[in-house]
From TrEMBL:
It comes from Octadecabacter antarcticus 307. It comes from the Bacteria. Residues 402-523 form the Glucose-methanol-choline oxidoreductase C-terminal domain. Pfam families: GMC_oxred_C, GMC_oxred_N, NAD_binding_8. InterPro entries: FAD/NAD-bd_sf, GMC_OxRdtase_N, GMC_OxRtase_C. PANTHER family: LONG-CHAIN-ALCOHOL OXIDASE. Keywords: FAD, Flavoprotein, Oxidoreductase. This is Putative GMC oxidoreductase.
Length: 539
């Protein structure tokens, strides 16, 4: 079935797809976004249901293999110590993300120059800075200006309260003389732009029914749809098509909500399917001139997959920490150990995030991403009465380095509900990341004890959290060298001049911060570059 051609076709309505659509609005080009998931309504979010916690282990699990919904695609992660997690709907993974919103730091864009590892990005912090600000304004970000770990900027809203838990941990950092700051979050501390402020229910991963969290279903998409951007939901793109003579993208083939296969022509194709979905789509788009997958003459599509490997340490205190009250996003963040210090025996570093606790059943069944259920019987009772209310934890968020053997490929046997090949993840924890986690774990114990914990609990078995592949980066990296990168410094494919990529797959390095603020700033920057170069876009 053929559809009327459009100027711009965006695949994926998550964090990055929404941001670039917003940037391109002013061009008055006809913009269409194809999204494999549905547009969820208030009633679809389980956070107001009595059995909301159960949904974390079923239809609202962050693990697509557990959800197994029609719009999901399975992921074979048998050969990985970390499972990539996501959400597939309008809003993408910002539906179930926690809204923790740190920016990358200036050094993150120059690791080759500063530390001799990985590669420098073709853009730097100063270039992205106005796009971070613009995105913060649109999204509604709460935080405290003046963080000495960053060049000067001001979040538009005051910080959310750090709570008893944050105050307690801050005391520990102060005792050690180490940096901490209230976290930036894309959660409204005040009513903003017609949206309601956070009501502190603490169910943020279940799709914030209040609309206080910065999911693009609440931020960008209402504006975009009002402005005439067409959003076609439950439409899964099977492949991007290419003119075999000119090598230009011509559009896509997709499976529509009507059960039919459609052809959609477009002048410009923008891929925003995330660090796993994007390489999957490109690898599925094989043709005579791109036998190894679209835009893959470098062989880099799918390579250099980076996560943020995590571990955590929990302190048990004498007083209740009220850890499950308030939004789940980190309350305070320390970047004391973020930059390279040669005496530590590893390069780059990590952040220490004060994770709030989860709700009781989730804690009992293994926590959020941890998968370490507490025992049944008397011990269960003891932990729920005497440990759970008194805990405050620190999460070590490590910077992963790009390694080519960590990759997304196509699984030869596994397919989604439309019969399209599913991704396979191959990922080993690098030696540098392992050392970072060990170092972080030791420092976290020191902080918790300094904060007054009577006991610290850590897994201590070198294991990273399994269901914690929240951040997927690097699989279609940016770069100036077409033999070592997939897109150029402003997101355009080296091989296909009307094909752009805007999600976390274009990251060159991972930093040690949650990526979405940077993903969206980059998408806005790519949009701006398209507008600036519009006359010579395909040269
Ligand atoms: C549980 C959880 C907690 C998180 N917490 C945080 C946090 O606190 N802070 C933070 O910065 N980040 C967090 N993240 C990560 C954050 O959600 C992602 O970084 C961000 O959403 C990625 O944006 P994206 O545009 O690359 O992809 P997504 O937002 O994942 O959007 C991709 C979209 O593309 C669609 N798509 C994919 N393939 C196709 C196809 N073939 N056809 C049509 N549509 C397709 C998908 O359905 C999806 O809607 C979290 C993620 C999870 C899962
Ligand atoms: S705690 Fe705040 S951000 Fe989280 S779900 Fe509730 S209202 Fe939304």
């Amino acid at each position: 079935m053929k559809n009327e051609p459009v100027d711009v076709l965006i695949v994926g309505a998550g964090a990055s797809g929404a941001a670039i659509a917003w940037s391109l609005l002013e061009t008055r080009m006809r913009i269409l976004c194809l999204e494999q998931g549905p547009h969820l309504a208030d009633k679809d979010f389980p956070s107001r249901d009595d059995d909301y916690e159960l949904s974390r282990f079923g239809k609202f699990s962050c693990d697509p293999n557990v959800r197994g919904l029609k719009q999901d695609y399975p992921i074979n992660a048998d050969d990985s110590c970390i499972m990539p997690v996501n959400f597939n709907a309008v809003g993408g993974s910002t539906i179930n993300f926690l809204g923790h919103w740190p920016r990358m730091k200036p050094s993150d864009f120059k690791t080759k120059t500063l530390d001799g590892v990985a590669d420098d990005w073709p853009v730097d912090y100063a270039t992205l800075s106005p796009f971070y600000d613009m995105n913060d304004q649109t999204t509604g970000v709460s935080g405290l200006a003046g963080n000495p770990a960053y060049p000067k900027y001001s979040p538009p809203l005051p910080p959310i309260p750090i709570g008893k838990l944050g105050q307690t941990l801050a005391k520990g950092f102060n005792e050690m003389g180490w940096h901490w700051w209230p976290s930036d979050v894309s959660i409204l501390s005040e009513d903003y732009d017609g949206r309601q402020k956070c009501v502190n229910a603490g169910t943020c991963d279940l799709g914030c029914a209040a609309g206080a969290k910065g999911g693009t279903n609440f931020t960008y998409w209402p504006m975009l749809e009002n402005a005439g951007v067409e959003l076609r939901t439950e439409c899964r793109v099977r492949e991007i098509t290419v003119d075999q003579d000119t090598g230009m993208a011509t559009g896509v083939i997709y499976h529509g909500s009507d059960g039919q296969v459609h052809e959609q022509k477009a002048e410009l194709v923008i891929v925003a399917c995330n660090g796993v979905g994007t390489p999957r789509l490109l690898l599925n788009s094989k043709s005579k001139i791109f036998p190894d997958g679209l835009a893959n003459r470098s062989g880099m599509v799918g390579k250099n997959l980076m996560f943020h490997p995590l571990t955590g340490v929990t302190g048990v205190f004498d007083e209740p920490m009220k850890g499950h009250e308030g939004p789940m996003a980190c309350s305070i963040l320390s970047q004391e150990f973020y930059e390279t210090d040669a005496t530590r025996g590893f390069v780059r570093g990590y952040g220490l995030h004060s994770g709030r606790s989860t709700t009781p059943m989730t804690y009992a069944l293994g926590g959020f991403g941890i998968d370490n259920p507490i025992p049944w019987g008397d011990e269960h009772r003891d932990v729920m009465d005497n440990v759970y209310p008194y805990i405050a934890g620190l999460t070590v968020v490590a910077e992963d380095l790009p390694e080519e053997h960590n990759c997304v490929t196509l699984d030869p046997n596994l397919t989604d509900s439309d019969g399209i090949s599913a991704p396979k993840i191959t990922y080993r924890l690098g030696e540098n990341s392992r050392k970072i986690l060990k170092h972080g774990e030791e420092r976290a114990k020191e902080i918790l004890l300094a904060a007054g914990a009577n006991k610290v609990l850590s897994k201590g078995d070198d294991a990273v959290w399994w269901r914690a592949g929240w951040h997927q980066m690097g699989t279609c990296r940016m770069g100036d060298d077409p033999s070592r990168s997939v897109v150029n410094g402003w997101g355009r494919s080296h091989d296909v001049k009307n094909l752009f990529i805007v999600d976390g797959s274009i990251f060159v390095t991972a930093g040690a911060v949650n990526p979405t603020s940077t993903i969206q700033a980059l998408a806005l920057y790519v949009g701006d570059s398209i507008k600036t170069n519009i006359e010579t876009l395909f040269d």
